[in-house]
Request: fold
Amino acid sequence: MKSSLLTAFALMLVLEGLLPFVAPAAWRETFRRVIQLADGQIRFIGLASMLLGLGLLFLFG
Reply:
């Protein structure tokens, strides 16, 4: 379990680092747009992301 968790965390870091490495200007612009969102909109995006992740875990896990 510990190995799987560390592997998942490492993969998340790789995926999170792709956009800033490949397209730093697009990454910066994305964050400018996120800053302008209301708290409720950001919470909804976070909730949708968590639910999608859980769904993928149940499908493929």
